[in-house]
Amino acid sequence: MIMANILQEIVATKRQEIAALKAQGSLAVLRRQAEALPPPRDFIGALRKKLALGLPAVIAEIKKASPSKGVLREQFDPAAIAVSYGQHGAACLSVLTDQQYFGGSAEYLKQARSACDLPVLRKDFMLDEYQVAEARLMGADCILIIVAAFRDPFISAGSHRQQEEAVVEMRKLESLAHALGMAVLVEVHDGAELELALELASPLIGINNRNLHTFETRLDTTLHLLDRIPPDRMAITESGVLTPDDVALMRGHGVGIFLVGEAFMRAPDPGTELARLFG
Ligand SMILES: O=P(O)(O)OC[C@@H](O)[C@@H](O)c1c[nH]c2ccccc12
């Protein structure tokens, strides 16, 4: 099969994982188990608290590897990394749970979350309500919806009907996440995706600076889309923030929320690097 980009390949893998998940039992059972858990941590509240103090709100990522960069960190202890992030002012955590492409796991999310008191985003490729219930059961306080994963890769703009179908599917995931008390981060790469993201209710709009075709990151992506984000939504710049200058550029344009992985993962102590980048 010829893939339009890495995302389409990952989506195909996820469809197989979802089929296996569904074979294990019904959504209703998973959902009841998720509803019996203590309530999730307040992800959006943690971001707002930092912003209210005039501080950058950093969603600090825990990821062992990525398809574009390979292994980022050999010595990988999610609990220790979470503690370090918590001590150095992170607002929230993001933990990769995809195994095949990012070397992640549900166990890493559980270990990280129980080592600190920060709200945690399950960073994975969500396509089905089963994964949303599963996310809550592993402890997630927020899920990610990647708009590009719901668009037909072979028709660049997508017909009107396909766009409506994408919105219907995304709303299903969002509704279940909200019913389970979780927040939803909606990720976009361009203006067309942003239009679809704004059809959802969630205030959290992530602008991913990474081009999925070339893997190149350009902070311009955030700057271009920023003024198309309505004031009742919260813009998050994602990927490719590596230096204090990058942070200053974003802050200078009024961006207060950052999702950062690689820069922290490559540092000996990830939390110390967070304090250095954002201090
Ligand atoms: O490591 P970086 O360049 O700081 O990027 C972090 C985060 O934005 C990136 O991991 C990411 C953004 N969206 C995703 C979707 C799936 C997997 C990973 C991602």
Mean pLDDT: 95
Span of the ends, CA to CA: 47 Å
Q: What Rg, in angstroms, do the CA atoms define? A: 18 Å
Do you know the CATH topology?
TIM Barrel
| CATH homologous superfamily classification | Aldolase class I
Bound molecules: indole-3-glycerol phosphate
Count of beta strands: 10
Q: Provide the CATH architecture.
A: Alpha-Beta Barrel
As an assembly, this protein is single chain
Q: In percent terms, what proportion of residues is strand?
A: 15-25%
Largest sheet: 8 strands, parallel, barrel
Summed up, the helix count is 12
* Count of distinct structural domains: 1
The helix fraction, in percent, is 40-55%
Task: Give the H and E element order.
Answer: HHHEEEHEHEHEHEHEHEHEHH
In the CATH hierarchy, what is the class?
Alpha Beta
Describe the structure.
It is a single chain. The chain has helices spanning 6-23, 27-35, 43-52, 78-87, 106-114, 129-137, 160-179, 191-197, 220-226, 244-252, 262-265, 270-278; strands at 57-62, 65-66, 70-71, 92-96, 120-123, 142-146, 183-188, 204-208, 234-238, 257-260. By secondary structure, the chain is of the alpha/beta class. The chain has a single domain (6-278), classed as Aldolase class I (TIM Barrel, Alpha-Beta Barrel). The strands form 2 sheets. Strands 1-4-5-6-7-8-9-10 form an 8-stranded parallel barrel, surrounded by 7 helices. Strands 2-3 form a two-stranded antiparallel ribbon. Helix 6 (129-137) packs parallel to helix 7. The protein starts with 5 loop residues before the first helix and ends with a helix. The mean pLDDT is 95. Bound molecules: indole-3-glycerol phosphate. Indole-3-glycerol phosphate (IGP) is lined by residues 61, 63, 123, 146, 187, 208, 238-241, 259-263.
